[in-house]
Amino acid sequence: MFKNAIVKKPGESYINGLTTSDLGSPDYDLLLQQHEAYIKALEKCDVTITDLPANEEFPDSTFVEDTAVLTKEFAIICNPGASSRNRETEEMVPVLKNFYSLFHYIQAPGYVDGGDVLQIDNKFYIGLSDRTNRHGAEQFKAIVEQYQYEAVIVQLEEFFHLKTGIAYIGNDTVVVGGEFIDHPLFNGYKKIIVPKEEEYASNCIRVNDYVIMPEDFTTTISKVENAGFNVIEVPMSEFQKHDGGLSCLSLRF
Ligand code: CIR
């Protein structure tokens, strides 16, 4: 069960944030509406929301997931790999101190983005990407192994972050797209395969009784529903324009 979620309002500077997509420039009013819809979806999942104000200094800071990885016992403060995002953690630490007393920190020359970390029960998968390097992944692994978690480092081939292409939605089930569809590491799970044209829907989140998914990805949504999950759909177009998936917009714990 998750009890809490942390989100952060996107600022007007969001439009100057990082992106690799060619989906056009975000509409700020629509972006705010979509962020509100995301919060409403989380509320329906029965978590208490900490809604942080925007910080114009950090255009990408609405993607709070990249700043930390939270477990039952401790918080790991990441060291985000994009220089314009690296200091987003400074604002997150005091917020997390309201909830956690045990902290670990990823330190340079190690870099980890939270979007590259997937927890499935007692196991962490850590993706090596343009944002997460081997040094950071090894630090992360050493930290969680102290607490009897397992950790596996996964080299990404194409995806931006590990969780761009895979989500764990409980009941031994992963939602997988692209390079993860046939990836041997995930063969032990029941797989919901995301078709190429819906790859963005590979990033979804299980929060208590619901799976929150991006709206209009009808094939994937039907597959998840047919597997017995309750789905809440949310509009995500303006976040997608800046490479942001559903999971990136919150820290859940
Ligand atoms: C970035 O490039 O860092 C942001 N525009 C998108 C971050 C998305 N975060 C995530 O997938 N965890």
Task: Characterize the structure shown.
Helices cover 20% and strands 24% of the residues. The chain is of the alpha/beta class. The chain has one domain: L-arginine/glycine Amidinotransferase, Chain A (5-stranded Propeller). Strands 2-1-15 form a 3-stranded mixed β-sheet, covered by helices on one side. Strands 3-4-5 form a 3-stranded mixed β-sheet, with helices on one face. The longest helix has 17 residues, at 28-44. The protein is globular, with a radius of gyration of 17 Å.
How do the helices and strands line up, and which of them pair or pack?
Elements: E1 4-8, H1 28-44, E2 48-52, E3 68-70, E4 75-77, H2 88-96, E5 103-105, E6 117-120, E7 123-128, H3 134-145, E8 150-155, E9 166-168, E10 173-176, E11 190-193, E12 205-207, E13 210-214, H4 218-226, E14 230-234, H5 237-240, E15 251-252
Parallel strand pairs: 1-2, 4-5, 7-8, 10-11, 13-14
Antiparallel strand pairs: 1-15, 3-4, 6-7, 9-10, 12-13
The structure holds citrulline.
Provide the CATH superfamily: L-arginine/glycine Amidinotransferase, Chain A
Overall radius of gyration: 17 Å
Largest sheet, order of strands side by side? Answer: 2-1-15
Strand content: 15-25%
Specify the biggest β-sheet: 3 strands, mixed
CATH class: Alpha Beta
Counting structural domains, the number is 1
Q: How many alpha or pi helices? A: 5
| Count of beta strands | 15
Helical content stands at: 10-25%
Order of helices and strands: EHEEEHEEEHEEEEEEHEHE
Low-confidence stretches: none
CATH architecture: 5-stranded Propeller
In angstroms, what separates the terminal alpha carbons?
A: 8 Å
User: Helices and strands: which structural class?
Assistant: alpha/beta
CATH topology grouping: L-arginine/glycine Amidinotransferase, Chain A
The overall average pLDDT, rounded, is 98
Shape: globular
What bound compounds does this protein have? Answer: citrulline
